[in-house]
Amino acid sequence: MNMLNKKAFHIMAKPMGAICNLDCTYCFYLEKENLYPGSNFRMPEQVLEEFIKQKIEANDTPGVNFAWQGGEPTLLGIAYFEKVVELQKKYSNGKKIENTFQTNGILLDDKWCEFFNRNNFLIGLSIDGPKDLHDKYRVNKGGKPSFDQVVTGIELLKKHEVEFNTLTVVHDLNSRYPLEVYNFLKEIGSGFMQFIPIVERKAVSSTNVNLTLVSPDYKGNAEVTDWSVKSEEYGNFLIKIFDEWVRKDAGKYFVQIFDIALEAWYGQEPGLCVFRETCGDAMAIEHNGDLYSCDHYVYPENKLGNIMEEHLSILVNKPQQQKFGVDKLMNLPKYCLDCEVRFVCNGECPKHRFTKTPDGEDGLNYLCAGYKKFFTYIDPYMKFMANELKHERAPANVMKWAKEKDAGFPNMNVGRNDLCPCGSGKKFKLCCGNI
Question: Tens digit of pLDDT for each residue in 192-221?
């Protein structure tokens, strides 16, 4: 087959569609069940085989990663994913195959964890902090809390030495308790943390696709949900955790947004799609083989086609998808184009760009104030770490440097009129020397 514009891309696979054993209040995906009325929401074997075969063929890379999400993928059972591994081996063609698996942890048991360990699956486990914060929104279909079951799942992952990271949705409640969340995640053994801001809007009246939560491009009357994190609270949440991390935990614990920031300050393009200048290389596939532009854009207007009708290599390179990716840059308001932290933020995800700039221009990200506050705050620390990297020294040296900075650099040979060693660009006497 003639592959078009072969390139590396990421696809979030939804083999169980939106079906889940939890009923999280803030979940934007549960109601996507309404897009497929009458479906049994289980990716048929012929679709699964085509997806695995086509994804390996279409990625012109020595390794291919498969990301299994939902809904809740454990509902499919272990035998289903044993078939996944079998098909990956069949079509690998010498490429290294890796699997990530996102779960709420409820159904994890010894057999699941043995399977994950045996096949080197990386597990992403969703947990929102200590019990009272987690159970606020992460409940089962009967409205009962899920925390105890999730913690049991984590203990099983550790027992079977399964590599895992944690995904924490930052919402209106836990955003007020950053250190409680961060310290709790350390206590349960999370070495890599992702903090994902939840921002959703509800239509004031029903939409024509029978969905309550509106699409990112919705132009009608919509209101931000009560559970959504407020912009500045998210910025403060990140700053509080960063203050703790940069003085005690750098090099010991890894926080995704801190890593992404360091990439940007080091001169690289941020590795996470929401912070890249353009996007379009991270798509989502539904249980029936429908491919969509993005996990946050699973709407009829963003459907690229079906892999049973067109090869992935064609779908991912459609002009529609290329335009989707470039629009992220082209639709940035002037306020963002002129922003001093644009190099790391790039307007974040277009999904959140539904507010106006101070000049009244459309397209400002709802989380702008929080991101601007956070990225501005971490600037001197990031400059130091980037400089350490450039000189082949450990970025974790920032912990000692941060303590020196707190004290005004008493042990450094710096004159009052010298540039401040914090990297602010100001004279020392006007910056840290004036503490």
Answer: 999 999 999 998 876 555 678 887 878 888
Given a cut of 60, whether residue 164 has pLDDT beyond it is: yes
- The answer to whether the beta carbons of residues 347 and 353 sit under 8 Å apart is yes
Give the closest residue to 307 by CA, choosing from 85, 73, 55. Answer: 55
Is the CA virtual torsion 230, 25, 81, 157 positive or negative?
positive
Query: By the 8 A CB rule, do 174 and 168 touch?
Result: yes
Q: How far is it, in rounded angstroms, from Cα 138 to Cα 200?
A: 16
Report the predicted TM-score, pTM, of the whole model to 2 decimal places. 0.93
Amino acid letter, residue 284: A
Active-site residue set: 295
Radius of gyration of the chain (CA): 23
Cβ atoms of residues 20 and 71 within 8 Å? yes
Place of tokens 């306020």: 335
Find, among 230, 216, 226, 229, the residue nearest to 354 by Cα: 216
| Ramachandran category for residue 425: left, alpha or beta (phi over 0 → left; psi -120 to 50 → alpha) | left
Can you tell me the distance from the alpha carbon of 407 to that of 421, in angstroms, rounded to the nearest whole number?
Answer: 13
Contact of 154 with 217, CB cutoff 8 Å: no
118-143 pLDDT, tens digit each: 999 999 999 999 999 999 999 999 99
Contact 246, 374 (CB under 8 A): no
Q: Which two tokens stand for residue 89?
A: 């081996």
Bridge-partner residues for 64, per DSSP? 97
List CB contacts of 361: < 8 A, sequence separation 6 or more. 333, 334, 335
What string of DSSP letters covers 34-69? GGSTT------HHHHHHHHHHHHHH--SSEEEEEE-
Is there a contact between 245 and 237 (Cβ–Cβ < 8 Å)? Answer: no
